[in-house]
Write a structure and sequence with these properties.
The structure is a single chain. By secondary structure, the protein is an alpha/beta fold. The protein has one domain (about 40-205): Rossmann fold, CATH 3.40.50. The chain has helices spanning about 1-35, 55-65, 85-90, 110-125, 140-150, 175-205; strands spanning about 50, 75, 105, 130-135, 155-160. Strands 3-2-1-4-5 form a five-stranded parallel sheet, sandwiched between helices. The radius of gyration is 20 Å and the shape is globular.
């Protein structure tokens, strides 16, 4: 009896240790995947541009890409209901005219899942096959996972921007950055689980192959 209990305790300890090891390894890979420098250019243009709100820098960078002709239209998703076009124009005044011709605003999304759904509806309505994704560098991995789940087959071109107070080069020395990374990693895990289950269901369902 004692041997059986000891064996179970040993197996449980091994399982817990393995889970912790996988968690730590995953976190290390997540941090390593984050680019600490802002993307200055895009190698190739896309049909559209999607900016996920969460900072003025994201919108300013997306407007810059649109002005450079990197996409035909820009979707700014997750905009606060009280924020109108006039307020958004103030972020980058020199790009103000673009709001009259080439920018769509989504006020409905409340999180990254909502951003992905808004992008899906927008890209589908415009018949876009590729989009540039603009969001913070630490938010990019989860954003791409949610967008790939919502829009399988759509080409995603990441364009990360790095907040001024975000220090990925020595994140362990900055409590704010460390907390932000850990929080984002905890959100990434269920996002990846949802993506895996979605992919499994899609592949098991006939007639759901992604468009190309």
């Amino acid at each position: 009896m004692k041997e059986r209990v000891a064996k179970r305790i040993k197996m449980l300890s091994w399982a817990i240790g393995s889970a912790i090891g996988i968690f730590v390894l995953g976190f290390a890979l997540f941090v390593h995947s984050i680019d600490g420098k802002n993307a200055n250019s895009i190698a190739e243009p896309a049909d559209g541009i999607v900016a996920l709100t969460g900072g003025k820098l994201r919108i300013a960078q997306a407007l810059k890409l649109l002005a450079q002709g990197k996409g035909r239209r820009l979707l700014i998703t997750g905009v606060h209901p009280a924020t109108n076009r006039r307020v958004l124009k103030e972020i980058a005044p020199k790009h103000g005219p673009l709001f009259e011709c080439c920018i769509d605003i989504d006020h409905g999304a409340r999180n990254t899942i909502g951003n992905a759904k808004a992008a899906r509806d927008w890209a589908t309505a415009k018949d876009f096959r590729s989009v540039i994704v603009v969001t913070s560098s630490y938010h990019m991995p989860r954003s791409l996972v949610e967008l790939r789940r919502a829009l399988p087959g759509l080409k995603l071109v990441p364009h990360p921007v790095t907040p001024r107070n975000f220090r990925i080069d020595a994140w362990w020395a900055y409590p704010g950055t460390m907390r932000l990374l850990f929080s984002e990693y905890l959100k990434l895990i269920p996002a990846m689980a949802r993506f895996c289950f979605s992919e499994l269901g899609r592949r098991m369902t006939p007639g759901t192959a992604p468009r190309s």
